[in-house]
Amino acid sequence: MDKQRSVLLGVPVDNLDMEQTLGKIFDMVREYQSDSINRLVATANVDFMVNAHNRKDSKNAKNLLSILRKADLVTADGMPLVWLSQLLGEPLKERVTGADMVPALAEKASLEGKSIYFFGGADGSAKQTAKIFKGLYPELKIAGFSAPMIDMEDEIENMVEIARINVTEPDILLIALGNPKQEFWFDRYKKYMKVPVSIGVGGTFEFISGVTSRAPEWMQKTGLEWIFRMAQDPKRLINRYAKGLFSFNRMVLPLLLVNSVAKRMAPKQLLTDGQSQAGSTELTLHDQLSMIQGMNTFITQTATGPVMHLDFKNVFALSSADISNFMSVLLLAGKENMKINAFNLRFLPRMLMKVYKIQDLLHPGNELPNGPETYAA
To answer: In which element (H, E) is residue 340 found?
Structure first.
């Protein structure tokens, strides 16, 4: 069971400190040598969460949410996410921002002989960032840098950029196109890339190169960095931040309310092993599902693939840890092309899945083979 992730508004965020995050990234660089899978690291903040649930742009929101859920590593780049995890009872170890991660990454890459490509940014910030790091860490391998005006629909130009990146054979690609563009760009063109690890770093190059000033450390730690940034460019940011905070709070307040009710229910932990019918595809889910007492589980085979049926009749509430574990099950099932049906879902578990933003991962079935109606939250 993956105990190092917390579910925050439908996104699994890794519970790692900076040192552990760097270790994970370089482990993924080494794994590429054996499996050739290019991996994504996302540095999520309030903007990410708002963009992933944007009702006015639901198609792009769903795409971003899917990308974040598939990402190989998601860090909490923002104190509001750390605070939210604490209020939910699944506290993240610390805030891991792109602006802090990239310098530490450069230092570790210089020690391990790994190369970095700087992609994106504005006002020559990618080149300047590479120059600064080369001065600080002479042994650092700079694979290259470029800051093209990216048009997502211009496949020819994007393929030219990817060829330019691939020929340098970087170990790590830092993508500074801003959210959600950098995540969309990676997801759309990853099949053409030959890079072990790509990291979306937003405006990090501007911070490091000095194009944009960063807030004092005390403002960063107290979650007031957004005020400092807004003061630097009020015309552009005041409306964006106001809308973002309103949207974020609109999602968070119901979550905290329903979660507090669930805590009072004090659900017990421990479940029965899953059972499967003949001819079905099985998953190793016994440990993953060990969070709900008395839930009956069985798997059937349909024309479109296996379906796992979960009977929640004895489940009265779920803790935040249960939600995290259950989402691990849902994501694992998705990778195996298995649909998940939940039936006999009581009001509180259904509301918890809704406010935690994971109900969309359930398969909306109609009836089970033995008759009872199924419910998707």
So the answer is: strand 339-343
Render pLDDT for 83-116 as a digit per residue (tens, 0 to 9): 999 999 999 999 999 999 999 999 999 999 999 9
pLDDT tens per residue, range 162-196: 999 999 999 999 999 999 999 999 999 999 999 99
Residue 209: predicted pLDDT: 87
Q: Which of 367, 297, 352, 376 is nearest to 88 (CA)?
A: 352
Q: What angle do helix axes 225-232 and 234-265 make, rounded to 10 degrees? A: 160
CB 89 within 8 A of CB 8: no
Contact at 8 Å (CB) between 155 and 127?
no
What Rg do the C-alpha atoms of the chain give, in angstroms?
22
Q: What are phi and psi of 173, to 5 degrees?
A: -110, 120
C-alpha separations of 118 from 36, 112, 177 in Å: 21, 18, 11
